Amino acid sequence: MDQILFFARAATRRPGLFVAVLVTITLGAIGGVYLKRPVYESSAKVLVNFDTRGISLSRADVQYGGAMLQAVEVITSQVEILRSSKLLESTIDALGSETFADPPPTSPIVIALKATTDRLQAALDTVLSTLMLAEHVSPRDKLIEQVGKALRIYPVRQAQIIQVSFQWRSLQVPPLFLDRFLKNYIDTVVGLTGRVDSPDIMDRQIRRAADDLDAAERERHDLDVTYGIVDLKREKQTVAARIDRLTGLLQGTTADNEPSNLENLAGEAGSMAGSQIATLRGQISALRIERAKAETEFTADSRQSRGIDSQIAAAESALAAGLREVKDTLASLRARLTVLQSAEAAYDKVGRNIDIATEAFQTYRRAAEDQRLQFARETKLKVQIVDPPTTPFRPIGWSRLLLIGAGFAFAFMVAIVFVGLHTLLGLKWNSRLYDMEPQPGGNGKAVPFMGTARVQASQTRIVP
């Protein structure tokens, strides 16, 4: 208590020194307060939803069918992704370094102080780098370091929430930075899971196989239109069978007494083909037999013989006309068979293309369905921003008024201590000088120096 009173009396005894120290430190504190820009903070909350089959919410839940991820592991992984330098650098590059620049001050005094401070800092960095006492750091690296220190990421206990906050010396920068930062984070998570790309690959393969199948079917349709074919194999079999029957009919080897053959031949060559040819041949045979009998009974010039001859000639003429019609039909059928045989190679090629495209389409379709089922069974993380970046309306920390008041109180205490120490040291110095001066005694010689004695502040008295 006596020492405190001593310091207080020292300040009152030397008011000039006290006021000088007080004003100097107070002005320095005020300058530092105005040079230090207010800091604004914006925060957001990210929900990591992992309540799926692949993740266990309890460490006691052990599945023998496969490995299970724990909730703490998933949250920790997402926090590490948020803290990755690549994500931070990509956000800074996307916004640009000019976004983080401090707005210019409006006060001329602050402008002058800031310019002086910047020049001193630049000169100090140059000297240190020249003397190889410090490494030169580029402005971009400095900005990345500052932004990394201003970014705070931490998980909320007993929750699936990750809170992200950012502090900066500008009102607009924190929410702008967090918004871009979280968008980049979501894009990164989507890219890492691969749940978007893989199904798209299978869908593209399915569309490609479907296009190939459509092209092959269009090519076969063009062949059908070009050759007038509905079913190549069936038409070829039908034409070959008709050629065989008409050839046998033309050569007279068809069994005319079979009803099925007569029905089949009825429509082969128009009105004179089929059963009519067989009928005419039968009539001619019967007439020739009758003509042979007539020769035994009548003369060759008799009326009966001439009538039979005229009937035979008419039947043979009709038979010849029918055979010509059969030959024409047979020629057209053989020409059609030649066309079908020439188109068979093209149809075989198109058929192979259709089979290959169909098999590829079915394979990719089944693979895509299996992959969708696999992704449905796999672990899926759903990241959502449940609380978007907030817009700050006041700076964090103490206001300038409180800082100036604290600076004044600090300056007042420092001034009292400084004046008190100055007075105390002065008294001790004066006591040492007094002990070394010659003192009167005996023959006028100096009294021997016997040492110094500790003088306490309570035993001293200041003489004005």
Question: Mind explaining what this structure looks like?
Answer:
Helix 1 (2-13) packs across helix 13 (400-436) and helix 2 packs antiparallel against helix 13 (400-436). The protein has 3 domains: 1-36 and 395-439 and 446-464, no CATH class; 39-195 and 380-392, FepE-like (Bacterial polysaccharide co-polymerase-like), CATH 3.30.1890.10; 205-377, no CATH class. The chain contains 13 helices and 6 strands. The chain is an alpha+beta fold and 464 residues long. The strands form 2 sheets. It has a 4-stranded antiparallel sheet. A two-stranded parallel ribbon has the order 2-3. Residues 17-95 form the Polysaccharide chain length determinant N-terminal domain. It is a multi-pass membrane protein. Keywords: Cell membrane, Membrane, Transmembrane, Transmembrane helix. It is found in: Cell membrane. This is Polysaccharide chain length determinant N-terminal domain-containing protein.
What is this structure, in a nutshell?
66% of the residues lie in helices and 7% in strands. With 464 residues, it is an alpha+beta fold. It has 3 domains: 1-36 and 395-439 and 446-464, no CATH class; 39-195 and 380-392, 2-Layer Sandwich (Bacterial polysaccharide co-polymerase-like), CATH 3.30.1890; 205-377, no CATH class.
- Shape label: rod-shaped
Helix run count: 13
The main sheet comes to: 4 strands, antiparallel
Number of distinct beta strands: 6
**Which residues sit in consecutive blocks of at least 5 with pLDDT less than 50?**
53-68, 253-272, 433-437, 441-453
Strand content: 5-15%
| Secondary-structure-derived class | alpha+beta
Radius of gyration over all CA atoms, rounded: 57 Å
Report strand order across the widest sheet. 4-5-1-6
- Relative helix content: 55-70%
SSE string = HHEEEHHHHEEHHHHHHEH
Question: Termini, distance in Å?
Answer: 23 Å
